[in-house]
Specification:
The protein is α/β, with parallel strands linked by helices. The protein contains nine helices and twelve strands. The protein has two domains: 33 residues; 220 residues, 2-enoyl-CoA Hydratase, Chain A, domain 1 (Alpha-Beta Complex), CATH 3.90.226. The strands form two sheets. Strands 1, 3, 5, 6, 7, 8, 9, 10, 11 and 12 form a ten-stranded mixed sheet that branches.
Length: 290
Amino acid sequence: MAISKKISSQPAVKTLPSWRTKFWFGALLAVAFVSLSAIFSIAAYTALVSEDWRAGENLFEGCNVLALDVRGHLVTYLPPSLDGEEDDATSSENLTYLINLAQKDPDIKAILLSIDSGGGDPVAGEEVAFALRRTDKPSLAVIRGLGASAAYWAATGANRILASRLSEVGGLGVTASYLDESGKNQKDGYAYTELSSAKYKDVGDPARPLSDEERELILADLVKMHEIFVGDVARHRGLEADQVRELANGLTYLGEDALAYGLIDGIGDLASADLDLARQIGEPVNYCWY
């Protein structure tokens, strides 16, 4: 998993390995695959970073602003692709690592997030938001086409959020919906054989329908996650929880409406961010894009 840098006033285009996980509790093969992928990913990432710093490479050489792309699916980590295909995805592991490095580097005066993402893993959004909140350097998030769900959660960690009048902002809510394949399997002559040591181990297996009890258990967790999301947005944006709760219906709002609701701080784009950050740091902006 490579971290690539481009010193520029415009974001570098990157494609990242495909990663996807959903509600799946019972499949032994899936558990083994995810575990092995995580091991390989962390090993490769650690080796890469260690090699860079052993060689004395300065990841931020020639820059005064760290600029981070948040594109596609937001996930916690990026395992290597086994099928050779690549998909747009961004990991909080990479983002938080770079934010923490920037915090320690006196040459980096500010941090920019350029966001075009419909969200992903809520933990990933929370991690990025928390990393931004921990830094004492000015931070600015620019929502381009879309900044929703976990991606919006990440943006709330920044000191300020800008978006276009046409940007889709918000999408506050949590979902674990999936396709129930049990009816099709039954029609095709397949029978589900349950082999689990614990009562709820295969909850969410698409090969069998949920019971009413299982549905209520899952929904209860989703409600808890929803309230954590609402609480973080309220704290980070300086809004009342009830106000955010009214907005947290899963809808996205156009930039002008998002501004009126307090979800963003202004209408603007990356050029606006240049001016905004230059004023804050007192010198022309020179980005390192990752």
